[in-house]
Amino acid sequence: MMQGTITDGGSRTTGSDVTAVTESLAERIGREKYRIWFQDCTRFALADEQLRIGVPNPFLANWLAGHFLKEIKAAAQSVLGLVPEISFPVDPEISGKRRPAPGSAQAAAGTKGASPRTSRRDGAADVGSCSTGHLRLTLDSFVVGTSNELAYNAARAVVRERQSPYNPLFIHGGYGVGKTHLLQGICNGVVQARPGAKWLYLSAEEFANQFVLALKTKRLEAFRSRMRQTDLLAIDDIHFLASKPSTQEEFLHTFNTINLAGKQVVLVSDAHPKLIGQLSDKLVNRFVSGMVVKIEPPDFETRCAICRQYSEKILSTAAGAGGHAQPLSEDIVRFVADCVRTNVRELEGALVKLTACSALQDGRLTLSMAQAVLAEHIERCDPIIHVADIESTVSAYFGVTPAQLHSSRKSHTISLARHFSMYLTRKHTNLSSSEVGRHMGNKNHATVLVACKKIDEMFACDEEIHWQSPHGNKVARTRAILAQLEDNISH
């Protein structure tokens, strides 16, 4: 059940609008994350095109602004038709509630993050000589290890050289491995190294929205001038352009203009350019013409270093706010780093829980206490099987490539492999149908549901399946195929 919502007396919106916003937010970030970070410990209020999210303390305000501001904006826009001004005031009524138990949703609040940044209603970002305060992440705070060293060095080169050899610099990797951190770090580094440089940082979704708005309002030239007259264009989540041919064409011209002027483009994506389904060949060729570098999930030592750094940040924030959190012992740091292996954000969430628990108990955590507090967190965030394992296994079995799984091609063999990949991903990961669809080349959730239903039906009657592989015609029963695929994935 959603938490209670309120509206101010002078509000032009209704309580149903607030409820719709919270429902949309829960759908976007997942019910479990919503339960931990919003339910029972925030209060949403809408008034005069302003969205105020009351929180019990500055810890949670900073955390929500730093990690969920994009999703909150999107949820509000989907309901209201515009992006309201968003703030995170400390609500005395929430602050005065009974102190939560360690490890509860309320206890999870507390880490250092960015102050909320409101945007202009048309979503346009300012271009110019901006201060580093506008972006909270820097290269100096990026923890370097074997999994990300190449990407980090390339980012440093972009900052150091007025005309870097990497154009574009295309950084890709899984969820929460530090791609956005490097992107913001590059922007902040360029500002510091060349204060007069013009730069623009935005997501591909914002680029697409501004392009559509420019078309509707007949301000296309102003949009193009803003996007193309920059020394640095930094675009996050470039895979969002998949299946948007008109926006892809516009971005292609934008890229060509900046590139011909000898200026820099840096792009971030969840996947290699060749694995982004429904992306034009022209764009793929431009992207791979520069430096394409992957960030792998952090290894154990890097995860330990990240844990230590986040722990220090949280302690600093707590001390500044009068808190009494104790430093985490090395055995707890190594325990967290050993158990949470997927990405940095999961590490961060685990550390927030532990530090909040330490503060609430006014004492140092023991290893056994940490294990108890994080038992559910570790079980949910670190699946045994990952999407990449499933895709590579299915691709190899059916004789196709991961790029073909992500494409819109509908040949029998590719469609069959895609269906098995979607089915196994839904079965063995925590991804929703919508998330699986986005990962598989921006397919909609209905496509995933149909694929899973089809495999279920084939499994029920153990249907005989035929397909064409590079080594000739193949035939096997559905249950035998699934058993073989799952055995290969687990190994």
Structural commentary:
Mean pLDDT is 79; it is low at 1-13 and 96-133. 42% of the residues are buried. This protein is of the alpha/beta class. The chain has 21 helices and ten strands. The protein folds into four domains: 15-100, DnaA, N-terminal domain (GMP Synthetase, Chain A, domain 3, 2-Layer Sandwich); 132-295, Rossmann fold (3-Layer(aba) Sandwich); 300-381, Helicase, Ruva Protein, domain 3; 387-490, DnaA protein, C-terminal DNA-binding domain (Chromosomal Replication Initiator Protein Dnaa, Chain: A, Orthogonal Bundle). It is globular and about 65 Å long. β6 (232-236), α9 and β7 (264-269) form a beta-alpha-beta unit.
Write the layout of secondary structure elements.
Layout: H1 15-29, H2 31-37, E1 43-47, E2 50-54, H3 58-80, E3 85-87, H4 92-95, H5 149-160, E4 169-173, H6 179-193, E5 199-203, H7 204-216, H8 220-228, E6 232-236, H9 245-260, E7 264-269, H10 281-288, E8 291-295, H11 300-320, H12 330-339, H13 344-361, H14 367-373, H15 375-381, H16 387-398, H17 402-406, H18 412-428, H19 433-439, H20 445-460, E9 464-469, E10 472-477, H21 478-490
Helix pairs in contact: 1-2, 1-3, 5-6, 7-8, 11-12, 11-13, 16-18, 16-21, 18-20, 19-20
Jot down its keywords.
single chain, 491 residues, alpha/beta, GMP Synthetase, Chain A, domain 3, Helicase, Ruva Protein, domain 3, 4 domains, 3-stranded mixed beta sheet, 21 helices, 10 strands, 52% helix, 10% strand, disordered N terminus
